[in-house]
Amino acid sequence: MTSPNTSIEDVPLNNFHRLLTARSGGGSFVDGYVLSIIGIAMMQITSALNLSEFWQGMIAASALMGVFFGGFIGGWLTDRLGRKKVYFVGPTLFIVCSLAQFWVESAPVLFALRFIIGLAVGIEYPVATSLLVEFLPKKQRGPRLAALTILWFAGAAFAYVVGTSILNVGGDDAWRYALASASVIGLLLLLLRVGTPESARWLLSKGREADAERVIKHVYGQHYSLRDLPEEPDQKKTSFLDLLHSGYGKRLFFVSVFWSCSIIPVFAVYAFAPKVLLALNLKGEWASYGSMIITMLFVVGCVLATRLINTIGRRCMLIHSFLWSGLALLGLATFSHSNEVLVLFLFGAYAVFIGGAQVLQLVYPNELFPTEIRAFAVGIGTSLSRVGAAVGTYLVPVSLQTLGIGNTMYVAAVVTFIGLMAAWAMAPETRSLNLRDAAALSS
Predict the structure, then answer these.
(1) In the chain, fewer beta carbons within 10 Å around the N or the C end?
(2) According to the 3-state scheme, what is the secondary structure of 247-286?
(3) What residues form the membrane-spanning segments (predicted)?
(4) Is the pLDDT of residue 31 over 60?
């Protein structure tokens, strides 16, 4: 019996796809939780461990440092060992290190544990997105990958609710319970991922045709086979450096530039939103409500982009996202000392319009590279973008003090417009392509 479809990328969304989305999306949720919970508990930690300013900064940045190395390691391991094995590394590290934080008694130990948690986050990006994209129908790739960004914000928001509740009732050691609470979510994620099959595409790239065939029949039904999987160019004997020289280096450059340019202003501005709003003359209730509204609008922007990604396409969305968010930052720079309503409007416009670039951070890297290097490419993009985010976050207080709020916003606008130029010059359109054609250099 032959399959009713010409390709497994044309099949309707089924329960397996939905479950796999939850399994991979759960990783983004946990990432948002573990990276945000430290900020909520930091004041109690500082007092309990008598942290110096040096160690406050190091512990706050430790996970971000770990993400940098985790992206490289996770991408390499995922392409070498397979998606399935590495799929359980992140949750395991989340459980062990989050639980270990409960008994921590010194700044160096807490730094080490947070660094390893950052490694786990960095590992999650390439393995979770690669496995998901290699099973999804092409019409669902964009929206489902984009939804992972929304789940990150959901995890961050949940951390705020849980962390604040624990601190309110837990006494002097409440911070220990807050940090350890991530182990519960990590355990749930680990259990949810039990039974996940290996990627048929990865198995095929390693010459394991029989295993790939079994996975396809298990997931899609007995009437499907390898004949229904669009073949990719044979990359089994090609090194990563050869692939870069053959043309994928340009794509990796594009991914790294647009990802960094979309995340640097967001991390920098969002991390210091109250401070930035204060510099923009928003005080008292304006600053409190402004921070809350802007946080909500970041989520709104990501939700809108997720719904529109298949309608207007990847390239168009990225260009417009950088254009209009850059103009909003330019407006903030020009009218930095204007009235509160205009400032909030421009800040909110930036939060909404940057949503397109935000959700494409996980879409483009997974579509533009073949199975052999897909996870590694995502890992490199993750790592390099976090370097920019760390630098931007570090420089914001310095810039506000030395350059002033107007010039700081001008710098953020310039970074965003660099992303716009990269998008205009290099962003391809992959909306209607299967993974083989999207990853092909001729596309």
Answers:
(1) N
(2) HHHHHHHHHHHHHHHHHHHHHHHHHCHHHHHHHCCCCCHH
(3) 28-48, 54-74, 86-104, 110-133, 145-162, 174-192, 252-274, 286-305, 317-335, 341-364, 376-396, 408-427
(4) yes
Same domain, yes or no: 259 and 343: yes
Instruction: For residue 252, give the amino acid letter.
Output: L
pLDDT per residue over 336-353, tens digit each?
Answer: 777 767 877 888 899 899
442 found inside a domain: no
Residue 27: closest CA among 119, 124, 162, 120: 124
Note the pTM of the prediction, 2 decimals.
0.81
- Kindly state whether residue 91 falls inside one of the protein's structural domains: yes
As for how many domains the chain has, the answer is 2
State whether 92 and 209 are in the same domain: yes
Q: How confident is the model at residue 237 (pLDDT cuts 50, 70, 90)?
A: very low
Yes or no: say if 358 and 262 are a contact pair by the CB < 8 Å rule: yes
pLDDT at 428: 92
Do residues 290 and 391 both lie within one domain?
yes
C-alpha distance across the termini of the chain, in Å: 33
Helix %, strand %, coil % for the chain, to 5? 80, 0, 20
Average pLDDT over residues 81-103: 95
**Higher-scoring residue by pLDDT: 322, 387:** 322
CATH at residue 123: 1.20.1250.20
Say if residue 266 is exposed, middle or buried (CB neighbours under 10 Å; 0-12, 13-18, 19+): buried
* Type of residue numbered 335: F
